[in-house]
């Protein structure tokens, strides 16, 4: 287990005395994690991030970064944090490099060589002298990440970094996040409602809904905690279904796809007895819901379905 780099303890925030934006949120991020913070619109993600960064004050609760309290030791807590919250603002008539130079001057203690380094990391070296006005949204986001990297952060906090990007832009930012985690060894905290993206890049997630944390943990463990649910396919599904129904220790969950839970029997023994009863089996595998299915299950939303009789 890595050291805890971010600890959020029982945070509460109410706006205008009635909007309960965040209600008792607690979680930990360990060094090396790519931690996904998920939730539908209005769930409380940005409010939580703003409290983590000390941009707004919680009604109660604590945030510790690297064991420093953001309330009592703000400077020390934020020293090794980079953040991209809401769209980054740049001077459009200046180049990327000049924008970063201005920012570095404000911040102090940042060398010119670091500016070139961060431009290289985010893949903007070749375009560094071009005016930001001519940048795509994806390039601007990468420049925003470059800015957040200037102070050599150990923890990078990104609030919906792929919002509004086209699929190419999304992929660029996703690849960049992977590189930052693997090559630069930066711990990443990323909020998003693009679930497939979180599933591809994060090792841990926390899901928040209506201000409350619903679940948090390792993606791999959340999605199939017991490895007891299986799916099976074959040329004659109704025969397979009939055989499964007659078996002890098997509980059918759904018919299409044919999905079931096994209790005490081993999956390999179940498969042997199915085949020896004459079943033709094409595939048999543990069921792993997508993060999207999991998200809709725990937030109580409904996943849209394509009309069954429409050709797709
Ligand atoms: N400054 C504010 N004043 C009043 N209400 C606010 C303020 N900031 C946020 N809220 C409300 O708090 C709730 C949580 O908002 P928040 O922006 O944290 O959600 P979010 O999960 O980031 O949503 P989104 O994905 O849409 O950005 C919402 O009901 C929002 O309208």
Automatic annotation (TrEMBL):
Keywords in UniProt for this one? ATP-binding, Nucleotide-binding, Transport
The UniProt entry, under InterPro entries, shows: AAA+_ATPase (IPR003593), ABC_transporter-like_ATP-bd (IPR003439), ABC_transporter-like_CS (IPR017871), P-loop_NTPase (IPR027417)
Q: Which PROSITE patterns match?
A: ABC_TRANSPORTER_1, ABC_TRANSPORTER_2
**Which residue ranges does the record assign to the ABC transporter domain?**
6-235
| GO terms of molecular function | ATP binding; ATP hydrolysis activity
Q: Which CDD domains match?
A: ABC_BcrA_bacitracin_resist
Reading the lineage from the top rank, the first entry is Bacteria
Question: Known PANTHER family for this protein?
Answer: ABC TRANSPORTER, ATP-BINDING PROTEIN
The text of the family note is:
Belongs to the ABC transporter superfamily.
UniProt name for this protein: ABC transporter domain-containing protein
Upper classification of the source organism reads: Bacteria, Bacillati, Bacillota, Clostridia, Halanaerobiales
């Amino acid at each position: 287990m890595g050291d805890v780099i971010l600890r959020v303890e029982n945070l509460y925030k109410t706006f205008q005395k009635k909007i309960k934006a965040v209600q008792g949120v607690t979680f930990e991020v360990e060094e090396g994690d790519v931690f996904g913070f998920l939730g539908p619109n209005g769930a409380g993600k940005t409010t939580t991030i703003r409290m983590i960064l000390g941009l707004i004050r919680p009604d109660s609760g604590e945030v510790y970064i690297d064991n420093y309290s953001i309330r009592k030791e703000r400077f020390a807590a934020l020293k090794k944090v980079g953040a991209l919250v809401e769209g980054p603002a740049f001077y459009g008539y200046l180049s990327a490099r000049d924008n970063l130079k201005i920012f570095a001057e404000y911040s102090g203690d940042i060398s010119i060589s670091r500016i070139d380094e961060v431009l290289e990391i985010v893949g903007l070296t070749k375009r560094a002298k071009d005016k930001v006005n001519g940048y795509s949204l994806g390039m601007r986001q990468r420049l925003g990440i470059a800015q957040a990297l200037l102070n050599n952060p150990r923890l990078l906090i990104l609030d919906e970094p792929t919002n509004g990007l086209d699929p190419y832009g999304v992929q660029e930012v996703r690849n960049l996040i992977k590189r930052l985690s693997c090559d630069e060894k930066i711990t990443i905290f990323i909020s998003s409602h693009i679930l497939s993206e979180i599933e591809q890049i994060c090792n841990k997630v926390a899901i928040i809904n209506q201000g409350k944390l619903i679940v948090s943990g390792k993606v791999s463990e959340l999605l199939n905690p017991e490895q007891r649910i299986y799916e099976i396919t074959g040329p004659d599904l109704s025969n397979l279904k009939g055989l499964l129904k007659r078996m002890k220790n098997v509980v059918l969950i759904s018919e299409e796809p044919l999905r079931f839970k096994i209790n005490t029997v081993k999956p390999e023994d179940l498969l042997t007895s199915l085949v020896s009863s004459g079943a033709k089996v094409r595939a048999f595998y543990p069921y792993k819901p997508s993060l999207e299915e999991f998200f809709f299950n725990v937030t109580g939303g409904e996943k849209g379905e394509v009309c069954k009789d429409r050709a797709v």
